[in-house]
Amino acid sequence: xxxxxxxxxxxxxxxxxxxxxxxxxxxxxxxxxxxxxxxxxxxxxxxxxxxxxxxxxxxxxxxxxxxxxxxxxxxxxxxxxxxxxxxxxxxxxxxxxxxxxxxxxxxxxxxxxxxxxxxxxxxxxxxxxxxxxxxxxxxxxxxxxxxxxxxxxxxxxxxxxxxxxxxxxxxxxxxxxxxxxxxxxxxxxxxxxxxxxxxxxxxxxxxxxxxxxxxxxxxxxxxxxxxxxxxxxxxxxxxxxxxxxxxxxxxxxxxxxxxxxxxxxxxxxxxxxxxxxxxxxxxxxxxxxxxxxxxxxxxxxxxxxxxxxxxxxxxxxxxxxxx
Length: 323
Ligand code: UVW
What we know:
This is Cyclase family protein. By secondary structure, the chain is an alpha/beta fold.
């Protein structure tokens, strides 16, 4: 649980000996650990399909009741710009043949729904993934944007670890943490072998609780999510296992403030910035988890591609899992 650390270290200090994949795929690389998801990885995903059951992992967008978002971001807003009312009041265009139609627009934070972060989304010490200058983010993400990830696509074998179930809970508590040992023990209890280059999904129950619980409590101040916590061993494990993607049903994929060192979101630095691990957040995992508990199958084919938003810091996605 959250404790107070008086002077949190700078990431340069905390992560001084942390592994990096900068340069591993060349000086121009912008997709990091996604390089691990090659043709073999796609075939491995295909081999994990047994029944053909499919699940989509995106949350609803622009829900009239509001979407779960990080403090300071706003839920997506959707507006009709033309619909039947325009034609009924004589304000719609006259279309040969008498057709009428509806159009709408959205105003959206690209991290305000189920999404992939670009590798240039978070950084420290003036450098983003692969050593590009943080100045490349000014005005538009010029390097390591979401575009090359969207062009590549994300296909491989996915696995789900149900951390909430491992703790015997429907949902982890605000600020509740788990680390590498918990992850491995939970997988073992599920009978799941996490393999090299698996797309790793972890369920906490947190996003599901937004829809089933008290929205004001979910967005309480200070906003503290449960989640994975930094340790050198965890980062080493991600590096050695060549994990290409971390996806969770939380907004930031990790505990909000690391109780051990007081820093905010250190895995965005150690995994995303340094190793080039793709982060996919705000996943809807409850239905998939329910099914995995029923049939005991915790691995599957995972397929997704974020939208091709030019220079985007991230982009919405609706991943599809096939079991
Ligand atoms: C933050 O940037 C806080 O989180 P995310 O990775 O969800 O965008």
